[in-house]
Amino acid sequence: MKSFLDQHALAIPTREFSKNPSKALRNASEQPVMVTKYGHPVACLVSIDYWNDLLQEQRELVLERQINGENDEAGTGRAG
Question: What would you measure as the largest C-alpha separation in the chain, in angstroms?
Fold first, then answer.
């Protein structure tokens, strides 16, 4: 699976998203879907696999910082 940051997001206006949310969900299984309003992003849809991968990467970064004795205030707002 490509990294989330390596994927190009598909932009879908809120009007189109409202008319056919199933299409956006199908597209999100292949690539991130950026929902836009007046041309500005308001939401991002990703597959559950991407979401779980992102959470796992975050957990690993926090754990790595804790192991290395670093403070995690910048990453999560909590002291490590």
Answer: 50
How many beta carbons lie within 10 A of that of residue 45, not counting itself? 21
> Is the separation of the CB atoms in 6 and 34 below 8 Å?
no
Quote the tokens at residue 74.
């910048």
Condensed to tens digits (0 to 9), the pLDDT of residues 3-58 reads: 555 668 899 999 999 999 999 999 999 999 999 999 999 999 999 999 999 999 99
* Residues belonging to the chain: 80
Query: How many secondary structure helices (H) and strands (E) does the chain include?
Result: 4, 3
Give the E-state strand segments of 1-62 in sequence order: 10-13, 33-37, 40-45
Whole-structure pTM value:
0.66
Residue type, 57: E
